[in-house]
Specification:
The chain has 8 helices and no strands. By secondary structure, the chain is mainly alpha-helical. Bound molecules: protoporphyrin IX containing FE (HEM).
Amino acid sequence: MQTGAGFFGSSIGKKIVMAVTGLMLVGFVVAHMIGNLQLYLPLHGGEHALDEYGRFLRTVLHGSGIWIARGGLVAAVLLHIWAAIGLTRMNNAARPVGYRELQHQKSTWSSRWMRFSGIVIAVFVIVHLLNLTTGQWHPGGEFEHGMVFHNLVTLFQVPWVSGFYILAMLCLASHLSHGIWSMFQTLGLSHPRYNALRQAVAYGLTTVVIAANISFPVAILTGMIR
Ligand code: HEM
């Protein structure tokens, strides 16, 4: 009989953990992008919509809402990395020496690239938290707690910071499109009949998220938002 530990130790168990946590992280990235689109809203009652939104996030459920969301996110990220490392080890152990140059080349390249883009995204998130959540590293000058609009605009006015964010978003684009595609496969949508739909959803969602995310530094760098 398959035990719980046996299931999570198996390749399919790890793939399911990857897919489910990946889905949670995609949900976060989409929700975060929608929240950030408030950068384009006009002042409301003398206040920037982003500042109002930031205050809402910090006070929802008497301040515990944001900690519940953070706990869920951290758990999803850790499990996603755990499953990725486990699957890589299993693949390396199973790959027969000598076949490398033959049929495994394409999938090996793609999974290597997923690992590389995943590491870039992890570094990006750490830098991003230091830039805009804790404010310990804010190259655009003074970081002010609660002043989300001010902190974002002064940060992206620094060209190399905006350049770094845009490059990180291109890595995220590659990781997201391949990740969403594989997630559908793991969750059972692998029938050839759905291939075109899987591809449309994976590329469509990725394009919307990345175009919006890249528009933020571009709008600030060009002075459209100041
Ligand atoms: C250019 C695109 C992005 C912009 C403009 C942006 C903007 C922001 C801002 C302003 C905050 C602080 C919010 C506040 O204090 O109320 C924040 C927090 C955060 N962002 Fe982003 N973000 C971007 C992309 C991303 C991406 C792609 C990820 C994940 C891969 C991400 C993950 C996070 C996380 C984890 C937090 C901390 C949330 C918390 O626990 O308070 N961001 N972002």
